[in-house]
Amino acid sequence: MIELLSPAGDFKCLKAAIQNGANSVYLGTDVFSARAFASNFNLDELEKAIQYAKIRGVKTHLTLNTLITDTEFESAINVAKKAYELGIDAIIVQDLGLAMELMKLFPDLPIHGSTQMTVHNLNGALELQDLGFKRVVLARELSVNEIDYICKNTDIQIETFIHGAICISYSGQCLFSSILGGRSGNRGKCAGPCRLPFELLENNKSINSGYLLSTRDLCGLDFIPNLINAGVKSFKIEGRMKSPEYVATVTRIYRKYIDLALSGNEYIIDENDKKELLQVFNRGMSSSGHLSNEANRNLVFKEKPNNMGLFLGKVQKYNPKKGYITVKLNEPIEVGDTVAFEKVDGSYTVSELMNTNMKNIKHTQNRSNCCYW
Hints:
By secondary structure, the protein is an alpha/beta fold. The chain folds into 2 domains: 3-280, Copper homeostasis (CutC) domain (TIM Barrel); 313-372, Elongation Factor Tu (Ef-tu), domain 3, CATH 2.40.30.10. 29% of the residues lie in helices and 20% in strands. The protein has 10 helices and 18 strands. The strands form 4 sheets. Strands 1-2-3-4-5-6-7-11 form an 8-stranded parallel beta barrel, surrounded by 6 helices. Helix 2 runs parallel beside helix 3 and helix 9 (244-263) packs antiparallel against helix 10. The chain is globular.
C-alpha cells in the first residue's frame, strides 16, 4: 500500500486529514516536537487522537523529532513510553541516541528517521537500515532520480515530502535561527529568518533586494507516478502549523491522484485541482521544489514570503469619490471572498460586486470586468 501521511497540528486538523483520505497522520505532543509552536497534543489529547484514528483504520506517527539534551532524555523516553502504551504506530526521531534507546525498550515499535536527520544519499539510508530504523524520511533536497536510486538499493521504507513549505537549507542543518535569535529549528523553535527581507550587496552596491532566501512551496502532483514507480512507500504533506481547511483540501486532492496513479488509468491532472491547492495556501504559486531532475532556478520567490492565494486580476481604475475599484478579472470572485493588493498591507473582504452595467451581482461568471467596494 502507498501511504498518504497528513499533518495534524491539532484535533480539528486530525479529523480533517482522516475524513479526507489520509492513511496515516503525524502529530506531536507539547514537548520534543519540531513544531513547538503548533497547538500539538497533551497526553490526554494524544490518547483521544490515537483512539479516533484507530477506530477509522488510520495510523498515527508521533513526532519526537528534536535534538534531546542529557537532562531531557528520561522525559523523552517517558513520552515515548506513554505513546507506546496508548497504541502509537510509529515514532519519528531525529536524535540518534534517543532512537537507539527506543529500539531497545520497544523492539516492536517502528522508529522512523526524521527528515531532520538529513539523509540525502544511499549511504545514509543504508546506515539507518543497519541501525534498525524501519523507515527514513528523505531530505527534501533530492530529485526523483536520486530518490529512485536510494529506493532501488535499500530495503528500508522510503518516505518523501510531496507538498508544502520547504527550507532554503537542508532540514536539520540550518543554524540561521539559532544565530540570529537563539531559537533552534533542531529544538522545534525555528523563527523562519529565511522569510525575512534581505539586500544583496556587491562591492558595497545593492544589486538585489527582497525575500531573497524565501523558497516557493512544493507541489508534487506531477511526480506521483514516478515516485511510486521508484518505490516510495509514503507521501508526506507538510503543514502542522496550517489550518484544518488546508489539511482537508490538500489531503483530498493528493488522495485523488495517488489513487489515480495506482489505478492504471491515464494520469491527467485537472488544472482546477492545482488552483484549489494554490488557493488554500501557497508561496510564489508553488514549484516542483527539488523533485525535478533539472536544477530548479525558480525556487526562490523574493516578492512575498507568505500565503498569496490565486492571482485574481489587475486593477484598471479606482474611483475614490464613489468608492469602488474596477478590476479586470483573471479568476471568478464572489461576495465574501478575501482579497489583497500587491504592495498594499492587509487584506479586504468583498462586500459588494457590480458588473460593467453597474448591476449588483453575488458572483462573477468566469473572467470578466467587475466593480467592488
